[in-house]
Amino acid sequence: MKVAILSLLNGKQSRYWKFIEQGIEAACGQFQAEALRLSPPFEGANEKQISAWQVKAIDEILKDKEVKAAGVAWQDGRTAAASLNKLADAGIPFVTFDSDAPDSKRAFFIGANNPAMGRTCAYVLAKQVSFSGGIAIDSPSLIIQSCIDRITGFKDAICRYRDIRIIAEVGGDDSLSAMQATAKKTLDADGLKGVFCVSSGSAKIYAELLKQRNMAGKVALVCVNADEQIMEHIKNGVIHMAVAQRPYSIGYRLMDYLYQIARSGIDTVLRGIPTSKMADTGMHQVTKSNLDSYRETLRKTETA
Length: 304
Description:
The structure is a single chain. The protein is an alpha/beta fold and 304 residues long. The chain folds into 2 domains: 2-112 and 246-282, Response regulator (Rossmann fold), CATH 3.40.50.2300; 114-244, 3-Layer(aba) Sandwich (Rossmann fold). It is 47% helix and 19% strand. It contains 11 helices and 12 strands. Strands 2-1-3-4-5-11 form a 6-stranded parallel beta sheet, with helices on both faces. Helix 4 crosses helix 5 (145-158) and helix 6 (176-187) crosses helix 7 (200-212). The radius of gyration is 20 Å and the shape is elongated.
């Protein structure tokens, strides 16, 4: 049973993606399945480069006549339908993982509930700013569906608090220099009491600036994803909370579903999928109080 998996990054570029790959490898071993695995071959690529590479990678999948199903984490939501629907049109059922493409012909999505993560961050941030004052939303990407969904969920929840106002919604450029410039400008905004970072990349920049300016604890900071640096900032009280995904589970369940689709057909598999078309892999709320137990969970995953 051969399937294809198209990723945004690989394990050498990201610890998060390393965990996803470990899950894929474990499932491949259990089901004795073969996977054509495609991930960007270059380091330090920007959104435009990754997007262009992914469009070409779809053609590589289509050339392999043994592929019976595909899993895709797509970069640019604006091009998702035009590119991904080529798979379905060629008779290759596909699912999305990590980042969804709801406007495409994908069968369903596997990963954390991104709108729910945004809502969770909103509830926590609202409490940290005592339910009043100015807050900012920062997202290095405005085209990746997972980021868009987190922002949507955050706004849906934060609007319930009449005395909280969004005074800055920034981002759209994932280069280091741009993220640094954006964070500096945002922290200079009058009346800023809290920041929601859609990804850990920008959150680390905000955390370092808050430390440099002696503003840690004065401006609340919450984010999505928790790598080692984020966890250190949580330990030191600079970041109040991070919502972490379960990448190993994403990888394992992705390969499991692809194997089942290749073996039994997409219609059979869809009978077990919720009407939301989401196979939710869950999330962790990581705070100072549960940081040690979360680190232990990661350690067990790495040594499994």
